[in-house]
Specification:
binds ligand PTJ; six-stranded parallel β-sheet; 11 helices; 254 residues; alpha/beta; 54% helix
Length: 254
């Protein structure tokens, strides 16, 4: 008998939590990553655990932005390696993005486990582990400052799912376009990125892949139009309104 029966009303959320727990048991996730997931779950609850209208338009803008990039890089941390390794590899293959492992709680053993997992899903090249191509991102003191010369250092667009704040600002200051996934529309990362997808990465990654596939048929001008029409501040404000409306609905007595 499975520990989480499919019939459980919160089965979906509990199964995502299980991915994190087995990611932790398999050496991919930092202890702190479990707490980060808890914070995300709370915001997901407030969002109604669905991809809202504003998240959908952020996903579309992100897809257009990745397709327009000369050198897009997807930054992978422990939580992402546990939650959606397959999707990261598919997205990278589909858009010609590079994959780079970059950890906040840096740990060589964990890096190796993350690389192994991504390779198991078909990734050919994974940056962020070769000390010969090490470069420094200025403006942050955490281990995230160590980046790869051929990856994030040279990238024009960097996808940073589940970030911890400081690096987004440092990347922006270094002239990069930053796309993030963050269930918390109030976080510093959300507020600082060029495009913030306020959605659970486990739902949004698939949608991003679908959008990239659909938009890959469009010409540059149409893609540029999609990006130019997107306003992150406005989108974040719309996300907060979605949470507010959801709470208003829930606060009404039937
Ligand atoms: O593997 P490492 O060492 O690089 O560490 C990764 C974590 C995630 C532990 C590190 O980056 C961290 O501490 O992140 P924070 O500061 O807790 O921020 C994570 C953000 O992601 C929070 O705003 C959460 O609400 C959000 N979040 C958590 N789970 C999800 C999420 N957003 C989207 N989808 C999720 N599943």
């Amino acid at each position: 008998m499975p520990l989480i029966p499919k019939s459980h009303p919160r089965a979906k959320s509990l199964l995502i939590r299980e991915k994190l727990v087995s990611g932790f048991d398999n050496g991919l996730v930092a202890k702190e990553g479990l707490l980060a997931q808890g914070r995300g779950e709370a915001f997901d609850y407030l969002l109604g655990e669905k991809t809202g209208k504003s998240a959908k338009s952020a996903i579309k803008a992100a897809a257009a932005q990745i397709l327009l990039a000369d050198l897009p890089v997807i930054s992978v941390n422990g939580n992402i390696a546990a939650l959606c390794p397959k999707e990261v590899v598919i997205l990278a293959g589909q858009t010609g993005s590079k994959i780079e492992v970059n950890l906040f709680y840096s740990n060589e053993k964990r890096k190796k486990a993350i690389v192994k997992t991504l390779k198991n899903y078909g990734a050919k090249e994974i940056l962020g582990t070769n000390s010969d191509s090490k470069a420094i991102l200025s403006g942050i003191d955490s281990a995230r400052r160590i980046i790869d010369k051929n990856g994030i250092f040279s990238a024009d667009v960097v996808v940073v799912p589940l970030e911890d704040g400081d690096r987004t600002l440092a990347l922006r200051k270094a002239g990069k376009i930053v796309i993030t996934f963050d269930l918390n529309p109030l976080s510093r990362t959300s507020q600082t990125a060029n495009i913030t997808i306020v959605d659970n990465v486990t739902r949004a990654m698939d949608l991003l892949i679908q959008n990239c596939k659909k938009l890959s048929k469009k010409n540059r001008k149409s893609l540029e139009q999609i990006v130019n029409d997107f306003n992150n501040k406005k989108n974040l404000s719309d996300n907060i309104k979605e949470i507010k409306n959801n709470l208003t609905k829930r606060s009404q007595i039937a």
